[in-house]
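For consistency, the fold was encoded as tokens, as this record shows:
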Amino acid sequence: MSSVAVLTQESFAEHRSGLIQGQVTVGGGGFPYCSEEENDPPTYKDAFPPLPEKVAASDAVQEQVGAWNKIRPIKSSIITQVFHVPLEERKYKDMNQFGEGEQAKICLDIMQKTGAHLELSLAKDQGLSIMVSGKLEAVMKARKEIVARLQTQASATVAIPKEHHKFVIGKNGEKLQELELKTATKIQIPRPDDTSNQIKITGTKEGIEKARHEILLISAEQDKRAVERVNIEKAFHPFIAGAYNKLVSEIMQETSTRINIPPPSVNKTEIVITGEKEQLATAVARLKKIYEEKKKKTTTIAVEVKKSQHKYVIGPKGNSLQEILERTGVSVEIPLPDSSSETVILRGEPDKLGQALTEVYAKANSFTVSSVTAPSWLHRFIIGKKGQNLSKITQQMPKVHIEFTEGVDKIILEGPTEEVQEVQTQIEAMVTDLVSRMDYAEITVDPKFHRHLIGKGGANINRIKEQYKVSVRIPPDNEKSNLIRIEGDPQGVQQAKKELLELASRMENERTKDLIIEQRFHRTIIGQKGEKIKEIRDKFPEVIINFPDPVQKSEIVQLRGPKNEVEKCAKFMQKMVADLVSSSYSISVPIFKQFHKNIIGKGGVNIKKIREETNTKIDLPAENNNSEMIIITGKKVNCDAARNRILAIQKELANISEVEVCIPAKLHNSLIGSKGRLVRSIMEECGGVHIHFPMEGSGSDTVTIRGPVEDVEKAKRQLLQLAEEKQIKSFTVELRAKPEYHKFLIGKGGGNIRKVRDNTGARIIFPTAEDKDQELITIVGTEDAVKEAQKELEVLIKNLDNVVEDSMAVDPKHHRYFVARRGQVLRDIAEEYGGVMVSFPRTGTQSDKVTLKGAKDCVEAAKKRMLEIIEDLEAQVTIECVISQKFHRSIMGPKGSRVQQITKDFNVQIKFPDREEAPAAGTEPIQETGEANGEVKEVDPTIPKKCDIIIISGRKEKCEAAKEALEALVPVTIEVEVPFDLHRYIIGQKGSGIRKMMDEFEVNIQVPAPELQLDIISITGLASHVDRARVGLLDRVKELQAEQEDRALRSFKLTISVDPKYHPKIIGRKGAVITQIRMEHDVNIQFPDKNDENQDQITITGYEKNAEGARNAIMKIVGELEEMVSEDITLDHRIHARVIGARGKGIRKIMDEFKVDIRFPQSGAADPNCVTVTGLPENVDEAIDHLLNLEEEYMSDVVETEAMRAYMKPRDAVEETRGPSKGFVVRDAPWAAGPTEKAPDMSSSEDFPSFGAPVTPKTTSPWGPKRF
């Protein structure tokens, strides 16, 4: 038994506090020690009291002396078990994801389910060791889960008699559950109605063996045949089983018995034999004979084999042990994996033991373990990206296992000796190469600046990595570490370190400002796909702009960066917000629904033009929305301009009148009514006019009415009458009636309700489709008028509630008209006349009786309407309209819209003929002379073709009108003369120009093929549309001819000669100077290419006048450049960086202020202090004076800093003076008795082995000799 003592921080502090204060310093190391008398270090036994020794049972019980006696024994309810999963049985074998991924998730899930605690470790053979701690029940459950979810599952079957199955299941399944838990397997027993006697076991190989053994034991106990249990020492079981179980199988076959030998993992000596009594006795006798024989003849030897080599002796699935047993007849006993013993016992005949021992050592030494020293930070470079470097080695040497440990400067190699040596040579070469060309540096940066160093989407850090070819590790937020590590090429590491420190220093000097911006503007400022905020960020690159998450509903936008830049950015954004506020003004314009499409225009031309010219946002309601309101958003002035333009379009399209009525503001709310019901009823009654009341609180008395002239006058009268009534006395009453009665109460065209209002003077308001209460009818007016109207309506409603049944005669020939289209005509009658039910006789009967059921008045009205329809049907005629079939599709319009409109307008039915089929292939078409198949038939040209005749049915006068309307839709074709050279411009890019004209004028335009070179363009369409298209086409021709003339004028070219050395100055920084000249003079300026012969030629193209102006501007710049001078000055190189400033900001400011160009020497220049200033003489002198003044100012700081450094001691020097700490010291420790007197190495895996990692022990241990 061995023990390990752990010294915690608390115990260390306690020991130190026990030392008295009198300390003296010896040597330069500064290590304190105590006086010989009282201040000596404590002894090892005082610091770590030993555990009590075992006391023999025969000895008298004596009181143990020592610190451990004071501890009272406590029986723990927590147990710990260790399970080992070999590599070949691991379900998850991804070595790169150990400790993460699916395996880790499963372990967490098992811990949550069972309440047990799991610890995983990876052995050198890549096997998985799992330590499970917890209560017994929790540990067993966790073990079962581990086996099921982390270990690959095998399966096996065991056959026992069907009647024994119930004994395996046990009472309420308890025995089966216990068995599954104990063996960590899944046992499936066939259902009672299944005739199979096979029990299926799923789990690990070891678990299956245990479960099979237990099931066979249960079966044997219940078996009616004889059962005998023979106790044979566990060590002799391999001899009875024989190599690969051959011997026991032979005995079972010869005796027809079943012999169950417990597997090696089950610590039982009992062998169970079942079978017929005589055969059973024979089998038992043979087993005992083998046992007695082996017990007499065999002897044992014990040898020490390193624990790490045991697995090589065992071999895959125990094959090596079976192989040794088969060859030599010697059994090899290996200690269990959780045992610390290294002793291997060989049992067999003396003359065979030598051969077996040789084979054991050969197997054990077939593999070796070696190590390569390599700094831990280089490990990932050795492994390579996605393991590329290692995979090259492992592919050549697949048997060698290479293990890297994080934070340890060592790489462990394990495998066949020769291959390990070769791999070791390769890795050492890689390490030497990497050490020679790689370096690392660590810098300290406050974690709050880490995300700014990384940049958005890693932009900053990726740029540094790419630029300096280094790897930069910034710790994640959860580590809360301020250490940043840079690895790579030594020069790149230093440059990256310098830049990161500069960035961090700049961030420390930054400031943060919060702007309050309404959240509704955030999306607008950010723009679509972040385009607008990108522009702001490009304008202020040093400022970081953070918008709050939309979910937070916050209005605070945070700016961070240099103080001046943040202020500028804040002012810019505040101005932007102010513009947005002024642009968010909104007004609603009521426009009649039928004119919305005209306001939009063909392809949205009109609305797009208004939006662009007024710079407003205009939203129109959807087609299926009944709203007439068009919403305009933008600046107030622009919104008013857009509103006027939209109203102007409406006025042009219809006879729209607009009047203003003066009504006291205090009456406005009562005239509008609850939810606008009252004013809406007036608008609907007066043909849908628009009545606009001023905004509440404006104090205005003006009410605007807009619409057709007659309807406006009518609405005006009603509004004024209602206002007068409201002023005198307003009275309101509410009635209720079924919604289906409303249409009948209103009457056709509002006739019934108008009659009631004319009689009483009261206004009656019916609910709209949006109102929740569909039965509520409101009567408004004077008290007398309202009461009188109420009486009349109540009488009407009462009559409607009086349901009667009546009948009428309708000729069967007209029945089809009423019931056609799923009874659409009858549905319309029912909707209009209070839900009257009309029943026609069944098809096939010759009855003419039609039944009507409903309110008496409704039935009468419905009968009257049906008689009117029958009268129309009796008076119906059919006429023919002859129009060539080629025009039929055009007449019908898109989806038959045009012909549907004619049908609706004139209440007629229109039937188009079937299309004439083309002559079949191989048949001769009829010639114009009428000759076909040798026969001559005369064709009368005056007789129309059947395919050209359109049938119109309805009243005679309506049919004639419909015929005229159809004929008006026949398209006509005209030809317009257009010069051939303009055709391609009229067609436009990919036909866009001609398509736009065809959409705008609703015509078809045909341009002749280019090879014909004709000056004619054909236009086909309705007569009115064709005329408009002709005018539009001629206007376009005029525009194109004007453009041609303009292009000729713009193509004037001018060439000037300018010395190439001045070209960069004329172009300017990022092309700023030349771009300004181009924009000011509206010209194109072309500089010579590198390969051109005339390098001094600059070509200017544009209008002649503009080209001359641009030439003068360029020559003026050349003149100034020729007057410029260059002067070199001496400026101390130590202040160059400060003059240049961050990102050249300082030097740019100086160059802009003095209008000069300043050039600093490059690194490695002969004279690092030489600075060149170029410009006009007076500007150069002023700039030089300014630079010299800056030098004087900055040099004083440089001198002061250098003087301070002289008094500061280097950090490295301070650290060198400190001696190494001796740590905690004890006397009379176990290692003091050894030859080296060396204390255990805390970093050594041999002195302090980690859990689950087998190590090679030293021959001598610093802890002293082992006790067994």
Remarks:
- The longest strand covers residues 79-85.
- Residues 585-650 form a domain with the Ribosomal Protein S8; Chain: A, domain 1 fold (CATH 3.30.1370.10).
- The mean pLDDT is 78.
